[in-house]
Amino acid sequence: SWNGATMAASWRVLAGSGPGDLSAGTTTAKSGFGTAIELSRGYPAYQLQALDAHGKGIGTSKGFGSK
Prior knowledge:
Blueprint: E1 10-16, E2 22-29, E3 45-51, E4 57-60, E5 64-65
Antiparallel strand pairs: 1-2, 1-3, 3-4, 3-5
């Protein structure tokens, strides 16, 4: 879950070598209150995007790192 994001239909993970070098990775349909998404190893930076039912981005998290 992400702060009660009720409009989110799916989640997209952005991953890369740093905040300025992120590209779209896994997209996962929202499933219930908490959706588990397995992250690929080897990327030091990630962000999460909430997508609406049409695949349009409706919000992006602050970045986070794996280190």
